[in-house]
Amino acid sequence: MARKSQPEGSQSSVSGWRRLRGGLTELVLIVVGALIISAGMRAFVGQMFVIPSGSMEQTLEIGDRVEALKVTDFKRGDIVVFRDSEHWLGGDPAKRSVPGQVLEFIGLLPNTSSNYLIKRVIGMPGDTVSCCNSQGRMSVNGKALDESDYLYRQQNGQTVAPSSIAFTVTVPKDRIFVMGDHRDASGDSRFHLSDVGDEYTGASAFVPIGDVVGPAKAVVVPLSRIRVLRTPAAFDGIEDRSSRAPARAAICLGESCPRP
């Protein structure tokens, strides 16, 4: 029995629908693939963070977006992003809506940094960090640091003092000692040297290396501030004392502490 042929217009409609469906399927596959790649990049390569405060001014300004690389080791002098496991910020961090969290997870929105901090690494495991010497400078393992390249500059052009707190500490193993570049506006390691904790007094001042997301390598937004973040020359030539890092930090506060 002969099959009835479909009208020419009907065949054209079916063919058009198939082309449209094929195009939509291809578009969905491309979008899903891009999201998977983006999520993978965020999980293993790098992550964007928004600067929430003025503690790193003028190196980083409030609202800057920086890229932290997870595949790169960090060293003394680098700026690092780290989780606030020691509760320096206090309280429960604010959270985005569920759609915002999804977009943040796949990397389409920057992390709001509500439970992350960003500071400069001053001391690595085993380092003795002291402030200040007779010239008013911070020192690491006996070397005085010229911090003029990154410390916050006041309206008169003078940099802020390296620290308003006199101290000498030796950084324990698997931890780092961090400070903000705007020392007068940074609640960094210095301000937790007297904190009473489960381990010992002052333990929370030293950030666990396992909490470090990675070094911040570039400002990527806004366009007017795009630049690469480099390790200052002030940290060149400092002795590596990681093999002598103690299990527990040595902490001394006040003007009576030994100075290099």
UniProtKB/TrEMBL annotation:
It is an enzyme of class 3 (hydrolase). It catalyses: Cleavage of hydrophobic, N-terminal signal or leader sequences from secreted and periplasmic proteins. Signal peptide: none annotated. Its EC number is 3.4.21.89. GO terms for molecular function: serine-type endopeptidase activity; signal peptidase activity. The chain crosses the membrane at residues 27-50. Residues 25-220 form the Peptidase S26 domain. GO terms for cellular component: plasma membrane. Its main location: membrane. The active site is at S55, K119. Keywords: Hydrolase, Membrane, Protease, Transmembrane, Transmembrane helix. InterPro entries: LexA/Signal_pep-like_sf (IPR036286), Pept_S26A_signal_pept_1 (IPR000223), Pept_S26A_signal_pept_1_CS (IPR019758), Peptidase_S26 (IPR019533). It comes from the Bacteria. The keyword Membrane applies. It is a single-pass type II membrane protein. It is found in: Cell membrane; Membrane. GO terms for biological process: signal peptide processing. NCBIfam families: sigpep_I_bact. Belongs to the peptidase S26 family. This is Signal peptidase I.
